[in-house]
Structures are given as structure tokens and as C-alpha cells.
Amino acid sequence: MNKIINDYRILEIKEIISETDTIKTFIFDWEMEGNRIPKPGQFVMVWSFLRKKDEKPMSISKIDENNNQIAITLKNVGEFTNDLHNLTVGDKLGIRGPYGNGFEMEGDNILAIGGGVGMAPISCFVDQATDNGSNVDIVSASVTKNELLFLDRMKNSGANIFTCTDDGTCGFEGFATHRTIDLLESRSYDMAVVCGPEIMMKEIFNILEAKQIPAQYSMERYMKCAMGVCGQCCVDNTGWRICVEGPIFSTEDLKKITEFGKYHRDASGIKETF
Amino acid sequence: MLKTRISGIEFENPLILAAGIMGSTAASMNWILDSGASGVVTKSFSKEPNKGYKNPTTVEVEGGIINAIGLSNPGVSNFKNELKLIKRNRKGTTQENGDKGIDSKIAIGKEISDKIAIASVYGSTPEEFADVVLEVHDLVDMIELNISCPHAMGGCGAAIGQDPNLTYEVVKAAKKLSHVPIIAKLTPNVTDIVEIANSAKNAGADALTLINSLGPGMKIEINTGIPILSNKFGGMSGPAIKPIAVKCVFDVYESCDIPIIGVGGIRDYKDVVEFLYAGSSAVEIGTSIMYEGPKIFSNINNELKNFMVENNFNSIDEIIGFAHKD
């Protein structure tokens, strides 16, 4: 009766990559078996038990089936991520999952848009798409050059990268939205995948919708059980659970999620506007 | 055929969403109602907002889960906005005026709505319970008093429901003010649940919900030696606790003549039939949503109908308490 994905694996951190001043990637050995084989877009629950105990959902940023490894990539934004950033190779974390739905491949001509650490699930999908021989254009956005994620890895995958930075230190000066509008003047795509701050995703949603490009978005909400029971991550107005029906939603799904781009709920359930 | 009644309130079928499961927003509760439940019990809420315990708050074990969410809720003033959006009155209302249906129901008074909203409230004193009841009793059909959560702190939850006198005081305070029927949800973690049930009844409880989660229990991760839940222990729910819940319902049915809502580990129609046989007038379903999703409600309703036809039962009433016949 137990869902095997709900069992914790206590895993040693095999490698830590400092991607930027604020973002690190943690690599773990992972048993690639049955429903534990992750799909790009899925997430794991990461239990930190060494110092301040807590557990948070994290997108999988790399799936390496040949070497039986997965990676998560975290930006240091608060108490929990700061605690994790202070870990070293050999330290252990409890991991369960993978949870939720992954991105679905719907065509060979793909636009992938990642804002900041939102590149984590996007890069994972780009690996899969380029392995399949798809043509992938990436819009990779960040505040400044040093915060752009996975540039070498994405170049090596064979994808075309279009960078943009808020301060213009690398590529286009401006937001992912501007870069996307720019690209769509001369190109079209079968599908798009998007992950980043929700305000960015909302604007990208409007742009892609106007061009009628089917898209899939990775959503984030405060999460507790990740097993579909506690109700913490349910969204208005459908009641869908981000941990089960999400975290990836299509354009059509998102039209029904009325809180998208507007608000989310904190640990007590109080609404906070974006 | 599936209709049942509790304290004058009609339920279109005996399946109700249990407290604490997908009950934090009107949207998720409306999804459950659309999936075939006749009613929903909200997640328990209190006067003030509460963030609950840190993660991990839930861990799966053989036969269910152990949880110590810690009664997180946005506080009654915020939660009232969710209560107003639960789509209760579905008779003759269109989608557009669905929300207004709530107001018209209050105006009409005792008219029975198609779907039943039950607010689960908690506090640490009779006064706190009374305050919350006053805030919400015009927005719901019934109120379930959570005096049984096994991982609550500060005198809440089972600290009340394990004491016959405190149980009496809290139920009495809530009943005195409430416009709607009061249900006391009891803990199985007592020497004699019948004694507590009678305290609740004597204080005026209109019905009982049996049982809250069992234990508390604990799961220790063996590579680290660390209890997984941040609270270390939590309430056990799921199929493993069902036989204990059925026995509690059976015992209370024999000695306490107010309606019982059975809850604990229900996963299919056979479990529902057992609870009805033991003496429940309706049941609540929670943890099994983890296995089946919201569609568990319509699935069980269909299976239950088939069972009734095959066994010549014409109504739920005929099934209730069947196991007590000699």
C-alpha cells in the first residue's frame, strides 16, 4: 500500500557546484527504478535534518540516467536555503519523490523560458528535448550576467541561447518578456515551457497566448505534505493540488487558476499578493 | 436511496469530507463536493491565525500516514471569506448566483441545502470556542468541535477531549450560542470513549464524530535515528486505524443515543458499510484521498448503491446499526 516515492532516501551530497554568487547545485546518487525515475518538471521534497530542521519542495534540475544521479539547484533566499548552502560534500539530506507531473513533449520546435533559478526545471527539460533531436531556443533571464544559470551546459546541449539581463551586462538588456516578444517577431514554435517568478510567468502567458503558442508552466506554492492530503497547496478556483495535479500546468489549465499571477497563501493560509 | 439525516440536516449521501484534508480553501472543498461528497468539514480553524509546525508535517507509514500539521489556519476572520464561497445551496441556483445562494438560504431559514458545510473549530477554552462559533454559525450548516487533535499544544485538541468535564464545558458553551447543530469530534485515545460521548451528549451535543486520528504515533528514520516529523509525533490515520474506529462507533451507539458520524481509514464501500452497521449515520473520508484522489467519493457512492441493491437494502436507515441486531 505504501507509495514508494513517499519513503525518504537519506542521501550523501556527492558534489556541489557553485553556479553563481547566490545559486548552488547539489548532486545525489539516485536509484533509477520504476516511479522513482524522474521526469523533467517534477520535484522532490528535501528534508534538512542536520541543523535547522525543515523540508521544502525543489525542482529537479538534472536527471542523469547513465550515472544514476539527480541534481537540485537552489538560490539562497531564506533560512532553509541558507542552511543548505552551508552544507558540504558528504553531508546528508532526506529526499522523497519525485512528485507531480512533468512537462509533456508536444512538437519538435520548442521555446524554453527560464527566469533566474527558474532555469532549474527548464534546463532539465532542454536536456531531454535536445536528446530527442528537437530544436530548442532558450530565453534565459536574470538580473545580471553573473546570475545567468547553466550557460555552458545549455550550449553543450545544442540549444540556442538568448540571454537577457536586467542591467544589460549579458545579451539583451531587459526582461524575459521583452526578449520573448523580440524572438517571436521572426520565429514560431510548437510549444513553450516556462518557469520563473510568477509575475514574469503571467506576462509571458499573455504574450504566448496572443501568439497562440501552447505552453506549460511550472507553478510553486507553499507545500506541506506533498502527498495530496493536507490541502495547503490547493489553488483557486479549481482547488487543484500543486503537488498532485501540478506543478506543471498547460495554458488551458492556467486559465482556470484564477489566483495565477495575483496571490498565493502563506503557511497559515493567509493570502499574500505578488 | 443514499440519503441520510443527522440532527434534522439531510445529506444526499452518507459520504462527507473529513476535517484536515483538502479543507483549507473553498475551492478545494467545492471540488470535493463536485466529486460526489454530500458535505465537507473544513480544516479546523481558531480565533487567531496559526502557521502550524515546521515540515516535515506528514509521513507515510504502513496502513496510512502520521501527521502533525499543527492546526495551521488563517484565523476565523480570514477563513470566513472561504466559508462564504462554499457552494452549498444548489437548488434552483445558477452558476452566476451560486454565491448569493448562501444569503438567500439564511433568509429562508431552515431550508435544507443540497450540500452541507460543516465548520471545524478549535480553541483552548470554552470562551474561545464560543467566540469562533458566534463568528461562523450563520455561514455553515453544522459545527464540528475539534476537541480531539492528538498533536495540538496549549490546551487545545485532545487535552479537552480526554477530560469529561472539559468536554462538557466546551460543548455546552458552543451549544448555548449556536444557531446550527453542534457535533463533538472525539479522540479514541481515552480509557472509555463512551464516558466522553455521554459528557458531550449531556452538554447538548447534537451528534458525535468518531474518531480523530489515533495515537499519537512516531516514525523514526533508521539511518539517522531522527523522528521524521518536526513535532516528533503526530496523529495516525488511514486504513490501519479502521477497526479501532468501528469498535468506538459500535460501543458509543449502544450507550449514547445521538447520531454518529464514523471516520477512520475508509477506503471503499465495504468500509462504509461496516461503519453504518456499527451505528454511524454517515461517514467522513480523509486520508484515502491520498490513494484515490477526490473521485473516491463518486466511486464509493456507486459501489454502495450496488451493494444496497444486491442486499435488498432500500435506504441507509435500514443499514444503520444493523450489527447490533441479535
Largest sheet of chain A: 7 strands, antiparallel
The total domain count of chain B is 1
Shape of chain A: globular
Query: Structural class per helix/strand content of chain B?
Result: alpha/beta
Tell me the strand order in the biggest sheet of chain B.
3-4-7-8-9-10-15-16
SS strand fraction of chain A: 25-35%
Description:
Chain A: It holds the Pfam family DHODB_Fe-S_bind. The complex is a heterodimer of chains A (about 270) and B (about 325). Chain A has helices spanning about 80-85, 120-130, 150-155, 175-185, 200-210, 250-255; strands spanning about 10, 15-20, 25-30, 45-50, 55-65, 70-75, 90-100, 110-115, 135-140, 160-165, 170-175, 190-195, 215-220, 250, 265, 270-274. By secondary structure, chain A is an alpha/beta fold. In chain A, strands 1-7-4-5-6-3-2 form a 7-stranded antiparallel sheet. Chain A has a 7-stranded mixed sheet with strand order 11-10-9-8-12-13-14, with helices on both faces. In chain A, strands 15-16 form a two-stranded antiparallel sheet. Chain A starts with 8 loop residues before the first strand and ends with a strand. Chain B is α/β, with parallel strands linked by helices and about 325 residues long. Chain B has a single domain (about 5-325), classed as Aldolase class I (TIM Barrel, Alpha-Beta Barrel), CATH 3.20.20. Chain B contains 12 helices and 16 strands. Chain B has helices at about 25-35, 75-85, 100-110, 125-135, 160, 165-175, 195-200, 240-255, 270-280, 290, 295-310, 315-320, and strands at about 5, 10, 15, 40, 60, 65, 115-120, 140-145, 180-185, 205-210, 215, 220, 225, 235, 260-265, 280-285. In chain B, strands 3-4-7-8-9-10-15-16 form an 8-stranded parallel beta barrel, surrounded by 7 helices. Chain B has a 4-stranded antiparallel sheet with strand order 5-6-14-11, with no helix packed on it. In chain B, strands 1-2 form a two-stranded antiparallel ribbon. In chain B, helix 8 packs parallel to helix 9 (about 270-280) and helix 9 (about 270-280) packs across helix 11. The radius of gyration of chain B is 18 Å and the shape is globular. The two termini of chain B are about 25 Å apart. The relative contact order of chain B is 0.16. The model of chain B is unreliable at about 95-110 (pLDDT under 50). At the A-B interface, strand 5 of A face helix 1, strand 5 and helix 10 of B.
